[in-house]
Amino acid sequence: MKVVTIILFLLIPLVVHSQNTKGGEDAKGIFKYEDFQKPQECGSSCHTDFYAQWKQMMMSKCYTHEWDEIEYFKLAVPHAEKESKVAGVKEGCNGCHAPISFMVGDVPPPKPEFGSRANESVSCDVCHTITGFVGDTPYNFNYISNPGRIKQGIREDTESPVHITKNNSFLSKAEFCGTCHNEKSPFGTWVKSTHLEWKEGPYSKEGVQCQNCHMPRTAGVSSLMGKQRSDIAQHLFHGAHDPGKIRGTVELRIHPDADDVVPGEEIKFTVALFNAKTGHKFPSGSAEERMVWLQVEAIDSKGKVYHLKVDKKGFEGEEYTISSNTLAYQDMEVPLGLTDFKGVQRDGIPEGNRIFRMAYLDPKGRMTIQQWNTASFGPDYRIGPRETKLETFTWLLPDDVELGKLKVRAVLYYQKLPMPIVEFLGVPKEEAEIIEVNNHETFVEVVDD
Ligand code: HEC
Ligand code: HEC
Ligand code: HEC
Ligand code: HEC
Prior knowledge:
- This protein is an alpha+beta fold.
- It has 15 helices and 21 strands.
- Helix content is 23%, strand content 25%.
- Residues 12-17 have low confidence and may be disordered.
- Bound molecules: heme C (HEC) (4 copies).
């Protein structure tokens, strides 16, 4: 009797769920928490190494990470409750940030402090039960989940004492990642498009997948009892939160248009920026809040520093790509319940620097970091994969500049979230950490005429 019950118990989840073909919003509430295994179960005695890697990746924290909690509970949820157009995000954010809770219908989930299973974020069993996706384009959590004893893997010859492993080539494809790394807002705009950027860029044509750069392969084992193999997929998933992944992404060179210059005359410097490392645009992902900017300074022979301003190119919407002392992000007034809110300083960096970004615009045409409230965009001035951009800085030397050697230094900086927003919303300061992507310097001689 007991044995029969146990066998039935093991079979029921298989019978009931093996046929799931729903994804995206249709998958809300179709499962129970018990259908999904906890990451500790995968990681405590078998996949110990991947478990240790998982605990460090952002995807194990996408529900609990403080900035995620602030943006969801302080902005998205109240916004959804006040404006019907964006009502869907109250539940929808969880389709990617707390997928199990979404598929169980526990939305909004309890706050992270209550320790619910939403805190598992994107766990082993979220990814390893995905069998495919709905439709032609992966986006808005349209993955199809089939939890149970069958785990989706990438090999034919895997033996596990606790699960059946199915070889599913979908896991090795960029589309798998695209189900969460492309996002369409309620206004129909692509507010996250890492997979689409990859698809139109050079790497997709060469067959280089997301996994090649974010899950590099090397010799080892994937579980304590597993076979030694030459090409085990490491679960690094390093990205915006890894300064080492950011550094060197873009290579810089600066050169002058003359070897010497006289005080009171003009000289022009050209900076070439080559995106050598990313498989998508830089910045990508949460581009509504990412800042990448080029700062050029001249240092005269006495050590005096002059900040050079970038030459305007004259394209439409260029003002969004040059740092200035303007206010933005006024649409936060709705969720925060403010009236006559003037906004927050837009960039928080010295004026006149080139910013490589795409401005997200709310329905009233103002810049927003609430990606779900994006009705249109400014120009896309990010640096594409293997793209090179040229920026020039024409400088009229002051009459009193020191004679002698003049050093001109170009630095490219990266910041996840502008400092004025961090301060305004009380986000931990490390989200506004400034990382130097690269630098280069050149020299000219300041001479008497
Ligand atoms: C079930 C949804 C889901 C799937 C599938 C998924 N991701 Fe993610 N990923 C997320 C979410 C949500 C975050 C945001 C974490 C956070 O809150 O900062 C993220 C973060 C990341 C980051 C970290 C970026 C940073 O800010 O440091 C990388 C890198 C990444 N994912 C790569 C991938 C790759 C490569 C794949 C495919 C092999 C993939 N992801 C599949 C949901 C997913
Ligand atoms: C964001 C999704 C994601 C998460 C989370 C994730 N994996 Fe994976 N895993 C993958 C993908 C994708 C591959 C295949 C990569 C490839 O084809 O290069 C993979 C491969 C594997 C493999 C086979 C490795 C090999 O080279 O044979 C094992 C085993 C595995 N994962 C276990 C785990 C465990 C255990 C966890 C949790 C501690 C986990 N994974 C978390 C996406 C994920
Ligand atoms: C050729 C290597 C390469 C490929 C292919 C690649 N990436 Fe990246 N990715 C990088 C590098 C380098 C960074 C760090 C610089 C940056 O943030 O863009 C990065 C950053 C990221 C980030 C953080 C972006 C941000 O600014 O917040 C995410 C998320 C991400 N990748 C996901 C993906 C996904 C999903 C794919 C496949 C569709 C993919 N990557 C393909 C190299 C690659
Ligand atoms: C389609 C999947 C998807 C949906 C829906 C989604 N996100 Fe995300 N979110 C992601 C991914 C993927 C990243 C990581 C991108 C990156 O690293 O640049 C991310 C990153 C973030 C971050 C971290 C940004 C940072 O600085 O690293 C926050 C905060 C966030 N999302 C909040 C939300 C909120 C609030 C909602 C609902 C309004 C939401 N997300 C809806 C996939 C999604």
